[in-house]
Write a structure and sequence with these properties.
By secondary structure, the protein is of the alpha/beta class. It has 2 domains: about 180 residues, Rossmann fold, CATH 3.40.50; about 150 residues, Nucleoside Triphosphate Pyrophosphohydrolase. The protein is built from 9 helices and 16 strands. α1 crosses α2 and α4 crosses α5. The model has no long low-confidence stretch (mean pLDDT about 90).
């Protein structure tokens, strides 16, 4: 099997209108480390890139750390828009995805972009059969490659990833036959902790890769119980596309990101999922699960109870209830039984 990891470049500096020479921003330079951390255990054999500067720059951190030369493949370059800079890129992209032959003067259609990228990919597959390959690429170029193998990938999917940088997609090939595509989007990186709740230096964990965590390494999941000064508690309803759709949770929370403490992760998740801004939290409890430490906090707030904000894709409703009503809810209505111990 041949594995190809396509890496869409990190954030570019759009003040530079030269498509070939556009560099990364300072944030983009920092985000290259996301790519390095992701690729470090993938046993990469060769590093390739589009000739455009932002793609090559994205691969330089990994290549430099592990001693790879970056081989430039010209036909992996991004779609040529045309002879003039366009401000309304959204309409242009929508027109191209609606008609794969649509293009501006001096520019390329998506059919043309797809044809040359697939030709280049097939040549790479022949040359590096059985190898693990990392390729620096671009959003539109990569999207046309995905579309070639999966025709269901279209404009709506492209819209979802247009601001995801870097974006990693893993392909697996048997010869020239594509047998799997794993859309990793932007990998979420976590710090590692041991069973004594001590941070393990030099180890980075990656979301959705739990089966490959080093033995004895755990990430942090931070949960926040929100109690209003009037004594009611905030319940959030899970979105239909989530696990346990439509169920209520007396918590806001998620995984602490790499570099965050448990409190910092909890405050961020609280803000993102509810819109509630807090300066401090009260520690409640922690316990060790299969892959993670669950750390629980209490937020006491005097916020406007009508100001709660829903996070798209995560929550779809909210309500404030007294403890007695929450404790009367069944396990078919309410998730988070451990948090119930702290509702009084």
């Amino acid at each position: 099997m041949t594995k190809v990891y396509f890496i869409r470049h990190a954030e570019p500096d759009f003040t530079n209108h030269n498509d070939l020479l556009r560099p990364l921003t300072e944030k983009g330079m920092q985000d290259r480390k996301i790519v390095t951390d992701y690729l470090e255990d993938k046993k990469i054999d060769v590093v390739l890139s589009s000739p455009f500067k932002r793609a090559a720059m994205t691969m330089e951190d990994f290549a430099g750390k592990y001693g790879f030369n970056i081989e430039t493949i010209d036909d992996f370059h991004e779609r040529i828009v045309g002879t003039e800079w366009i401000d309304n890129f959204g309409d242009f992209a929508k027109n191209q995805w609606a008609d794969f032959d649509y293009k501006l003067d001096g520019g390329e259609s998506l059919n043309e972009v797809q044809t040359r990228n697939i030709a280049a990919l097939k040549e790479v597959l022949r040359k590096y059969d059985g190898k693990n390959i990392a390729v620096g690429t671009h959003g539109t170029a990569l999207s046309t490659i995905i579309n070639y193998y999966d025709k269901s990938f279209g404009y709506e999917d492209f819209e979802k990833i247009k601001d995801v940088m870097p974006w990693i997609v893993a392909f697996e090939f048997d010869g020239e036959k594509c047998v799997s595509i794993k859309n990793l989007k932007k990998p979420e990186l976590w710090d590692a902790y041991n069973s004594d709740y001590k941070k393990l230096e030099g180890i980075t964990l990656i979301r959705d890769d739990e089966a490959n965590f080093p033995e004895g390494a755990y990430h942090l999941v931070c949960e926040v119980l929100v109690r209003h000064v009037d004594g009611t508690y905030l319940l959030m309803k899970r979105s239909p596309n989530k696990n346990w759709p439509g169920m209520w949770e007396a918590t806001a929370g998620g995984s602490a990101l790499k570099g965050e403490t448990d409190v910092e992760g909890a405050l961020r998740e609280l803000r993102e999922e509810t819109g509630v801004i807090a300066e401090k939290l009260e520690f409640l409890s922690k316990d060790l699960g299969k892959y993670c430490w669950h750390v629980r906090f209490l937020c006491i707030t005097d916020c406007d109870k009508n100001s709660v904000q829903l996070q798209e894709g995560e929550t779809c409703d909210y309500k404030w209830l007294p403890a007695s009503e929450i404790l009367a809810m069944s396990d078919k209505e309410l998730l988070g039984w451990e948090m119930r111990k702290h509702i009084v």
